[in-house]
Amino acid sequence: xxxxxxxxSTLSVQEGDSAVIKCTYxxxxxxxxxxxxxxxxxxxxLIIDIxxxxxxxxxxxxxxxxxxxxxxxxxxxxxxxxEDSAVYFCAARFDSGGGADGLTFGKGTHLIxxx
Amino acid sequence: xxxVSQHPSRVICKSxxxxxxxxRSLDFQATTMFWYRQFPKQSLMLMATSNExxxxxxxxxxxxxxxLINHASLTLSTLTVTSAHPEDSxxxxxxANGRTGGHxxxxxxxxxxxxxxx
Lengths: 115, 118
Hints:
The structure holds 2 protein chains of 2 kinds.
Chain A (H helix, E strand, L loop, with lengths): L3 E4 L2 E5 L4 E7 L4 E9 L6 E7 L4 E4 L2 E6 L4 E6 L8 E9 L8 E3 L3 E6 L1
Chain B lengths: L3 E4 L2 E4 L5 E7 L4 E9 L5 E8 L5 E2 L8 E7 L2 E6 L8 E11 L2 E7 L3 E5 L1
Parallel strand pairs in B: 2-11
Antiparallel strand pairs in B: 1-3, 3-8, 4-5, 4-9, 5-6, 7-8, 9-10, 9-11
């Protein structure tokens, strides 16, 4: 099955600086890569996603890049703010061709924004 | 946007009893519901996948007789933890995927249920 590796496990940056979180996946048949933000005691919230036919996607301060050849994708947050502090998860969906497939998650990155 | 309502948010039960968790899609038809479990400071692990009107498919290592999943309608899915034990204490999260125009959309997550078995 699919395996998703995520790094780093903890990331501390100064407010206003950029943060980058990286993930790799194992199965070249995966075609959908969402990123989620999870605050303590809450469910994951989708912040951005990318499909395998696109190399980059941006939404205001958040961007995601995908390198299909290398099988890795990254989350970029610019001009970080205290409210960006949370745990971020990358995920990948392996397309079995039989219908909706579940997501395989990375282990998460605890992002800490230092004021 | 799409919303999935999950209840209860927290539940404490005695060892040996059963607990039911509900997830409802409020403004779309959830053709597929995924159930995840998350232990403290760990990632989400897929437990099972259920399609409306069909039996759930369980991931390896997940006991189907212990975690009963019902997806009888396109807007409601339930997870029942039977004969709960302390090791079942965890954060359970549902995720719905809807189908529009023949294409599968994104995944909408519920807010999670913190289960504590004492």
